[in-house]
Design a protein that fits this description.
The structure is a homodimer. Chain A has helices at 3-13, 28-33, 48-62, 72-89, 102-105, 115-119, 135-147, 160-164, 184-194, 211-224, 253-260, 304-314, 340-350, 365-368, 390-400, 421-427, 443-451, 459-462, 474-480, 491-503; strands spanning 18-22, 41-44, 67-71, 93-99, 125-128, 153-159, 200-204, 227-230, 237-239, 247-248, 265-269, 293-298, 355-360, 377-380, 406-411, 432-438, 484-488, 508-513. By secondary structure, the first copy, chain A, is an alpha/beta fold. The mean pLDDT of chain A is 96.
């Protein structure tokens, strides 16, 4: 079989059965092979960042990679921002990037670029295929590299002639890795830290923030009094229902540093030492107090949940005595203006059990978070901070979990970067509800302008932050991509629209026109 | 003054007075400084590829760089595809990329990335600022590097603390370079080639494709019989009116190779040896015949028009005897279905004198080109082939040339990658008319599927090429961004809408729903 078919069949052998694509001439053989390899699902994105972000969302929900199919160096370039986010999420992703045929590469054709150089900053593994007959082996190697653990972005660059040449049979699948418990030494060092009499905190990230890890951490906390914190930039946090709540580190460094003040040791569970999102004049970047010591209970590729379970047993925590009653859902607002809090309460009240929430709400995030403590859902936060993550991640999560309601929480600024996602949601009839928090500004920048010491926002600076003149009309934009849409300007209108979206399947966008305090 | 103000003032001293921006926290000082440096025009883009593509378009029309202001590595990543196009266009562009503050860079914050690595593949010059007091000097060095000649993408990476720290006075401007005539040796070698009795062609690119170069080439051709060809991927081609026409190399290699068959020497004027856009099974990538020799009359950074003028005099060409009557404008179609040819004839008939045409029409390009031979306009073609160029280039050209009508010719596939450009056109009230050639497919891929030997398009492959289910509604998309829009489904409707757009200023989009031959 030719290289393209060999690659698709090898991916399938590796349980990679979704390919998010924006193909061009050099990838035609892969597109054609879809008809001979029907188990591979091809999903078209109208912009490459949609494909890469969707692969991230898919990986966060399944733990396994989707493939992307991208057109040469410049196609990969358009995918990079969301691959940066996937890298920070430790999501396994397999990029297949078409390249000019080998004889053509020597010429400086218009689309010729240094594809490997584009790939390297975001990829844990990069390989340019050397010959057609290496296709199967290389595809399995890419999947193995992507799976880690921890998950990585693996990029396989395939010259077009290797796709159309004879490549032999598909390769054997790569072994499926599993996360191992940390070494006894590591486990005992953390147990020692918790028994040290010092003020110790646990910082959880990665797989430790899913249900098993959170349950073990809660038992540990009950037994030892250790405070448990969540990395706010983890790929996924299980929340609500019977899942124990976890305190998330605040966004701004002052608040985070205040929360961690007095801690003498932090035990890291698949987490790195906590750091501020941005640096500011006169502020420390590290969120832990000066002199705080760090113990690594589990590194990023290890089994943090298992390690927490071991630690709980070691320290004499009692087995979980059945479900602790969680917090109650908030009451729906009524007759109120549509504030950020009203949106949060509505989401918290109406989010169906088992929903997935892709959250890229930027300036509103801190106010909405507490209202979602009761609703049992999977939260997919910002990881790498490259804007344009939320819609594609929601798209990928919906592809991963048919039957689950997916909600994407966006700002009118952040939703703009990869809005082409809406079209793929419409085409694939995905069950995604998009809430656009419309404040008509890059509102976070109003705050950051002061914090970075840049002063007040003058008339000309304001034009770079203001999103009016003209106001984007999200109803028309959504409908332009084939997604049903409605606008809500009061809490009651939002309740009606969001409630309807929760009851019915299919993509839908709600523009929540926020009632904002005067004078910003 | 602080670093941000020093940088803006140094750019102004270098005649760089336009900054296309999508700023974030690390660039707040630059945004704030706009109020203290009012001669610097800030223009907001809602996606970074809009900014970089607009800088390319601006440079093609003015010969000087605009600045972009981008947010960290991931913001730069979103700009890369159009920076690839700018690089291939040899457009001078100055990227200012904000970076984390130096003390923050040591931490692995979410947005931390290898910004230099993102910059290198597209940049002829990259520098990470070493200290605040080097700001002025570095900004002038960036402009000097961008100007070349030939023009380059220059990327200056500025840690946030150098923006907010004292940086001293703005630097002296860099010397303005000019293109030099090639060496006497080069000139004489080309003269020798033209006198050699061999079958010789001239291939023009770069500045040689503007009026002076084309006039000199015409005189040379009249005197010696040499055939003159245009690089189809040049940044800008002057066309119509009194400007001599020039034969463009065809897109597909078979046609281009047939055109160049029999040529024994090609004299390159700011051009490289011609090469096929893609490689295909069994086809040569070089468009010149095997054994064809190349002479370089002028390299990319040299004065090709001046060299042609020298050559014309040297070979005894008579001075131009006044304007030769150019071709006539095509007749308007009437009562016809809206074919690609009907669109071409309408454009050719109604394009106002002095218009600018940004052309990213892909599969329709070859059919439209001949109809535009009479209308005096500046044509801005695809250069690097990274899709998403056309709308931003039109935006930048409109910023460069207020008072000129700008037309962007797009396909419904290609317009999708950087459609956020529409919002900036609306905000800045730019005189851009966008024609969307809606064939509801990545139509070029139907052709390429056969050409790459991938065979026919089966049902599942078709889904990756088809843009229906749902059909994007370009009227709603345009209106969603604040741009007036209309649909045309017959030639008469298109004439009415395009005519109205030519008579009135301001942004406007026309969706031309093409009547396509059955069975594709």
């Amino acid at each position: 079989m030719n290289g393209a078919e060999c690659l698709l069949r090898t991916l399938l052998a590796n349980e990679v059965d979704l390919c998010l694509m924006n193909p061009g001439t050099s990838e035609m053989q892969f597109v054609s092979a879809l008809d001979r390899v029907p188990r591979m699902r091809g999903v078209l994105g109208l912009f490459e960042g949609v494909c890469s972000g969707a692969a991230d969302g898919y990986a966060r929900m399944t733990g396994k990679p989707a493939a992307t199919l991208l057109h040469l160096g410049p196609g990969l370039a358009n995918a990079l921002a969301n691959l940066h986010n996937a890298r920070k999420a430790r999501s396994p992703v397999v990029n297949i990037v078409g390249e000019h045929s080998t004889q053509h590469l020597g010429y400086d054709a218009p689309l010729t670029a240094d594809t490997e150089a584009f790939a390297r900053p975001v990829s844990g593994w990069v390989r340019s295929l050397e010959r057609a007959t290496a296709m199967g082996e290389a595809a399995s190697a890419a999947v193995a590299a992507a799976l880690g653990p921890p998950g990585k972005v693996a990029t396989l660059i395939v010259p077009a002639d290797f796709s159309w040449s004879e490549a032999g049979e598909p390769a054997c699948p790569a072994p499926r890795p599993s996360r191992h418990l940390p070494s006894n030494e590591q486990l005992r060092a953390s147990a020692f830290a918790l028994r040290s009499g010092k003020v110790v905190g646990l910082l959880l990230s990665g797989s430790a923030l899913q249900t098993c890890g959170l349950l073990a951490a809660e038992r540990l906390s009950a037994a030892t009094g250790v405070r448990v914190f969540a990395d706010r930039y983890a790929a996924r946090i299980s929340r609500g229902g019977d899942v124990p709540g976890v305190e998330r580190l605040p966004y701004f460094p002052e608040a985070a540093q205040a929360l961690l003040a007095g801690f003498e040791r932090l035990v890291l569970v698949e987490a790195r030492p906590p750091v501020s999102f941005f640096g500011y004049p006169g502020l420390r970047s590290s969120l832990a107090p000066a002199g705080c010591a760090f113990d690594v209970l589990a590194s990023e590729g290890e089994d943090g949940a298992g390690a927490l379970e071991w630690l709980a047993q070691e320290l004499g925590a009692r087995p979980s005595g059945g479900a602790t009653p969680g917090p109650l859902r908030p009451a729906l607002p009524s007759g109120e203006p549509l504030t950020v809090a009203a949106v949060g309460r509505t989401l918290g009240a109406l989010l169906p059990e088992g929903a997935i929430l892709s959250d890229e709400s930027v300036s509103s995030n801190e106010q909405i978070w507490p209202h979602l403590a009761a609703a049992r859902h999977e939260n997919l936060p910002v990881t790498g901070g490259a804007i344009g993550q939320g819609l594609p991640v929601a798209l990928g999560a919906a592809l991963a979990c048919p039957g689950c309601k997916v909600v994407a929480l966006e700002a009118d600024g952040s939703a703009m970067y990869t809005l082409q996602s809406l079209w793929t949601m419409a085409r694939e009839r995905l069950d995604v509800t998009i809430v656009i928090l419309a404040n008509r500004r890059y509102r976070i920048l109003d705050i950051e302008m002061r914090r970075t010491g840049a002063g007040t926002v003058g008339r000309r600076a304001d034009k770079m932050i203001d999103l009016t003149h003209p106001e984007p009309d999200w109803i028309k934009l959504a409908e332009g991509f084939g997604v049903q849409a409605a606008r809500a300007a009061t809490a009651d209108e939002f309740i009606r629209e969001f409630g309807a979206a929760m009851r019915e399947a299919g993509p839908r966008l709600i523009e929540a026109v926020l009632d904002l305090p005067k004078g910003r």
